[in-house]
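step=encode ok
step=design start
structure_in=
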């Protein structure tokens, strides 16, 4: 029996690969384009008909270049599988694969990533990535004589360029207008999105050789009294302002904090620095502000924790999330999740109450003014049902799966709200810990790192580019609590603070200088910005 061999000219094979990427793997891109600009037959809509051709000829030009002997047998299968994996997230979770998203993926631990490995996700990757990759590897590629091969390939590339230029010339205004108003949409095109993200990430890594800069060398405390200051800074995860009971949301999701009445200063309008932990956490501690934030520069200079520590404040970071993203590298820190306490932990993740038992120990073992950072897992998805214990499963029915797109909106929101109930009791217990130490000038300062989408307009999770991110991902809850001794000694007008919390807008930009105010730091320092210090704004004259 004669063996059937599948053979094809290299140029034809590359054109088929480009066609597969164009018509199949970039479905999410076309769906997004048409959702933003539906085709109605109007004169301004005809450029939409050229978009698939534009994508095809761009990809064809690239793949014709990549069709080098041997090398293409590695590159093309890899691109197929990775594109299929990203395509699933784009289609079902409305994820944009940007440089920030790549960095987030690279920093995701096994416990987090394993929860994304659902059967539909794996089946999608196999069906649209692995199977086409295997078929590609089975094809025997026929090459012409080398000079003819080069000439033919150059001809195809030039043909593609001519078509691309022709489309651009005729529909330039339409394309320019669409891209200008929707800058993030091209981040849905595979494989260019993750190749571009990879190139940018390599640039960041190369820039990692930048020299380290110390800041705030003139920072010092200027305490008006001898009482010990103890600030607990709780950094939340994925909790959004829209479902925060103290903001007026119904049903009430923060009953314990609400019961404390005026003890709690609740800030109604607060925005995050980013829409993903890998960006927001370093940004909020950097002092650069969202508009001026540079991730590479931030990683090569002191943050607020470094400045406070050098000024004599004891700084401790306890982590129950996916790490401090470099912020706590130079201060005392501990990965609490790694303790794997069976009372709180399962499959590499722990309930936030695991952090409570460490607070008294920190107070006992430290003697100076202290900032204790508790990095919580908060409302992290998609396994929202794992963020609370059974007694906080009060809103039903719930979405007890990581395939959240299969749940009804009611199930999904109920599950997310149960997680906020758990955060409410956690913060209440942190405050109770502080109340049990009346000798301290204590403060509890809570803010989330970013928000979360729960299916609004088909968007789930977080990480959407900030320019187009829905406010569900950028508006966050923020509260403050102060002990009686703090209120008595710090000469602050708390009615002013409450009024500002209700009427003014704040952001992660305020954290840096506000910590200065909380810890009685001398304001005459190069890194302090009085206008961003929430506390000093309400100091009595």
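sequence_out=
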């Amino acid at each position: 029996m004669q063996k059937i061999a599948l053979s094809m000219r290299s140029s034809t094979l590359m054109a088929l690969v480009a066609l597969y990427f164009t018509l199949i793997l970039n479905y999410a891109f076309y769906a997004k384009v048409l959702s933003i600009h539906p085709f109605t037959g109007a004169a301004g809509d005809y450029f939409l008909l050229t978009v698939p051709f534009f994508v095809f000829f761009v990809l064809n030009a690239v793949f014709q270049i990549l069709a080098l002997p041997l090398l293409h047998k590695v590159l093309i299968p890899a691109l197929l599988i990775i594109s299929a994996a990203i395509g699933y997230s784009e289609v079902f979770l409305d994820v944009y694969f940007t440089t920030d998203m790549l960095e987030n993926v690279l920093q995701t631990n096994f416990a987090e990533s394993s929860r994304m490995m659902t059967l539909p996700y794996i089946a999608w990757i196999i069906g649209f990535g692995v199977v086409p990759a295997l078929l590609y590897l089975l094809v025997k590629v026929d090459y012409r004589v080398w000079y003819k091969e080069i000439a033919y390939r150059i001809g195809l590339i030039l043909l593609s360029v001519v078509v691309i230029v022709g489309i651009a010339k005729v529909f330039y205004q339409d394309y320019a207008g669409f891209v200008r108003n929707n800058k993030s949409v091209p981040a849905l095109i595979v494989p260019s999105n993750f190749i571009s993200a990879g190139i940018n990430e390599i640039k960041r890594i190369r820039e990692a050789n930048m020299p380290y800069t110390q800041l705030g060398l003139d920072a010092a405390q200027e305490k008006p009294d001898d009482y010990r200051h103890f600030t607990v800074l709780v950094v939340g995860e994925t909790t959004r302002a829209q479902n925060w009971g103290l903001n007026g949301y119904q049903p009430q999701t923060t009953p314990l904090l609400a019961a404390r009445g005026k003890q709690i200063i609740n800030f109604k309008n607060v925005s995050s620095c980013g829409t993903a932990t890998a960006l927001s956490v370093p940004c909020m501690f950097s002092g650069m502000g969202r508009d001026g934030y540079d991730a590479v520069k931030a990683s090569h200079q002191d943050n607020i924790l470094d400045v406070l520590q050098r000024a004599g404040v004891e700084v401790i970071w306890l982590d129950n999330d996916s790490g401090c993203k470099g912020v706590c590298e130079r201060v005392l820190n501990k990965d609490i999740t790694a303790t794997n306490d069976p009372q709180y932990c399962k499959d590499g993740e722990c309930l936030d109450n695991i952090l409570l038992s460490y607070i008294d120990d920190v107070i006992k073992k430290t003697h100076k003014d202290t900032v204790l950072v508790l990095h919580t897992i908060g409302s992290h998805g998609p396994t929202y049902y794992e963020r609370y214990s059974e007694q906080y499963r009060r809103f039903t029915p719930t979405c007890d799966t990581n395939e959240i797109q299969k749940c009804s909106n009611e199930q999904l929101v109920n599950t997310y709200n149960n997680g906020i109930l758990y955060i409410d009791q956690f913060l209440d217990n942190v405050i109770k810990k502080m109340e049990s130490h009346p000798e301290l000038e204590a403060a509890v300062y809570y803010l989330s790192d970013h928000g979360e989408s729960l299916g609004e307009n088909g968007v789930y999770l977080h990480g959407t580019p900030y320019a187009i991110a829905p406010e569900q991902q950028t508006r966050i809850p923020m509260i403050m609590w102060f002990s009686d001794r703090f209120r008595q000694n710090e000469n602050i007008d708390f009615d002013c603070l409450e009024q500002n919390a209700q009427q003014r807008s704040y952001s992660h930009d305020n954290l840096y200088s506000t910590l200065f105010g909380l810890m009685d730091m001398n304001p005459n320092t190069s890194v302090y910005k009085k206008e961003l210090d929430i506390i000093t704004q309400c100091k009595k004259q």
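step=design ok
step=annotate ok -> The mean pLDDT is 92.
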